[in-house]
């Protein structure tokens, strides 16, 4: 059975509050959104074997899961414009600012999310990874249990346990968001399937200037009453 309850978090089932904006979400927190994203990524990496054959993939999944369980990585806040990235590269002459040996390929926030040049440095992949490992808070017994739980219940199962674990989630979520918007009253129900009857349109629109009519109430065909002979009054 694939779990999903409308108006509840797709990842943890917590009830979602009313959202006043049309920009609705299907998760209760950023951490839940990122957890589901890592689960999907991990399921794909297990299925195609890359989790075992490619250390970068395995490392990426582990780091992303740790971030997600810690409340989510501030990816959006940390995105840098191209001209800032170029300034960091120029400042370091393209060389890793840590080991001063390797080619610098990754831009690192020295501390916190500030996008200002003094807080940015150019690192090689190895130095960047070493720093990330060092900064990663040590796994608490609770987070270890949580990771094991997610792994056995959601990654190592052939059928997705939750709808948000499925590979089709990204396509499905568009429709699910639209349905949630409808339930929250953000989008007026579409009315173009409704068949207008002769009575429901104004006499002016259908019969030009002849409005002194008693209309018959027959469903319109191509916007025009099929039975004008039933109208009473001057035609
Ligand atoms: Zn949640
Ligand atoms: Zn380096
Ligand atoms: Zn009519």
TrEMBL record:
GO terms for molecular function: endonuclease activity; nucleic acid binding; zinc ion binding. Residues 83-129 form the HNH nuclease domain. The keyword Transmembrane does not apply. InterPro entries: HNH (IPR002711), HNH_nuc (IPR003615). Keywords: Endonuclease, Hydrolase, Nuclease. Pfam families: HNH (PF01844). This is 5-methylcytosine-specific restriction endonuclease McrA. It comes from Kitasatospora gansuensis.
